[in-house]
Every structure is written in C-alpha cells, then in structure tokens.
Specification:
- Helices cover 34% and strands 33% of the residues.
- The mean pLDDT is 90.
- It has helices at 11-28, 40-44, 65-75, 90-94, 109-126, 172-179, 220-234, and strands at residues 2-7, 32-37, 53-57, 80-85, 101-104, 130-135, 138-143, 147-153, 156-161, 165-169, 184-188, 191-194, 200-202, 205-208, 211-214.
- It is of the alpha/beta class and 236 residues long.
- It contains seven helices and 15 strands.
- The strands form four sheets. The chain has a five-stranded parallel sheet.
Length: 236
C-alpha cells in the first residue's frame, strides 16, 4: 500500500487530484491510501514520516508549500515530494528540497499519471528486496541492494557485496532471471551487474568500485540501454 498526502487549499483542485488518484489506482491495480490537508501548516503540525508521496500545492494562504516542504525535509529525507503549481519557476526552488517533480495547473491526468509512475518506480527501487542464496552448510538471506555484481566461477556464483563476498551455487541464467527486475544486467557472459553500482564506463568496461568489468560486443547495446534507462530513473 502506498500512503499519499494531498495538500491543497482549493477544494475543487483537491477534488480533481483525488479523482485522478482513484483513476490511477484502478488503472494500475495498486493500493493507495490518501489523506488530505487544506494547507501546509496543518500537514507540518505534528508531522510524522509515514507518507510515501506528498502532492503539495505551492501557493497556500497560511503556510506555502515550499516552506512546508523545507520543514518536512528536515524530518523526512525519504518522502517523495511532487509540487502542484501554476508557476513553473517554482520548479527550480524545488530542487532545494529534493522534489521529484512538479505538475502545472490546470492538472491533466496524463501529466499526473506520468509523475505517479515515476514516483512509484522510485518507491519500488528504494524498498528492500531480499533473495535467499544456497551457501555451504545452509542458506543466506541477502539484501539485493547490497550486491555490487555477480561473477560466474566454474559451477559457482561469487556475489561481490558492498562488504565482503558470498559463494553460492546456481547458474548465471537463473540468477539473471531473478535479479533483472531489480536493475541487474549482464555486461558479458560471466558478470551480472547491479546497474545502480556502475560508477562509469571506461575503455569498454563498466567500472564498479575498484573493478573494471569488460562489456562484450554482443551485449553492449542492451547493456548501455539498460544503464541509460536506470540512470534516467535516478535523476530528477
């Protein structure tokens, strides 16, 4: 379930956003729980970091959305902020509070759904996902985000973690199928990379920390496309 706060002092505008959220929920088959606030002051009073997304009008009478966002950011560095405004210049100020995006009034459903898609993609990426690896003497639960890359070594898989290494059994094809939804892609036959861990591309190699992993000619196009798409989703 995704928790959303709608902060809008205009009743008609708030009703449109709630209608769009209901339509989006039905179209995407996702579960949304929405709370509404009539101004920024009501939201920040006793604020607790329990929301995934805040849809915030910028111009409000008692406490404007930008000031409210600054207060919230000091308490909640993770919540996704999307500003609703009829003044595009506020988008520049939005970067100061790490807003994901903004939507111009009058809000169209197409623009709204695009921002929601982007927000939910970020939420999904930030959530902790675990896999269970067979290891010598038993099994080990691993946070996918801690995997830098997987290396095929004979009949074993070597997981290069942010801290240490894990030796497991299995095939690279099976592991690719399991990790691909979390942003992993093969750069060559023997390496499966966490695209979020790629620091640079140099001399035909993907740089992951201190390691340079060769990008094979046959996989270059697909790998670079996957990396570009992944990096695009990480930027504002």
């Amino acid at each position: 379930m995704i928790r959303i706060a709608v902060v809008e002092d205009d009743g008609e505008s708030a009703a449109i956003l709630l209608q769009f959220l209901e339509q989006y929920q039905n179209e995407r088959s996702c579960e949304l729980k929405t709370d509404t606030y009539q101004d920024g002051e009501t939201l920040v009073r006793g604020y607790r970091p329990e929301y995934d997304i805040i849809l915030m009008d910028v111009q409000m009478e008692h406490l404007d959305g930008m000031t409210a966002a600054e207060i919230i950011r000091r308490q909640d560095p993770e919540v996704i902020l999307i500003f609703i405004t009829n003044m595009p210049q506020y988008a520049i100020r939005g970067y100061a509070v790490e807003a994901l995006d903004y939507v111009l009034k009058p809000v169209s459903y197409f623009a709204f759904s695009q921002r929601m898609d982007r927000a939910l993609s970020r939420i999904d990426r930030n959530r902790t996902h675990y896999i269970v690896l067979p290891v010598k003497g038993g099994s080990q639960k691993v946070d996918v985000a801690q995997i830098r890359y997987v290396e095929s070594r004979g009949h074993s898989l070597l997981f290069h973690m942010r801290q240490g290494e894990i030796v497991s059994s299995g095939t690279m094809t099976e592991m690719e199928r399991e990790l691909e939804p979390y942003g992993f892609c093969r750069c060559n036959k023997g390496y499966l990379l966490n695209l979020d861990e790629v620091d640079a591309i140099q001399d035909g190699c993907a740089v992951v920390g201190a390691d340079k992993l060769l990008i094979s000619r046959g996989r270059k196009t697909a790998f670079m496309e996957a990396l570009t798409n992944r990096m695009g989703g990480r930027t504002k």
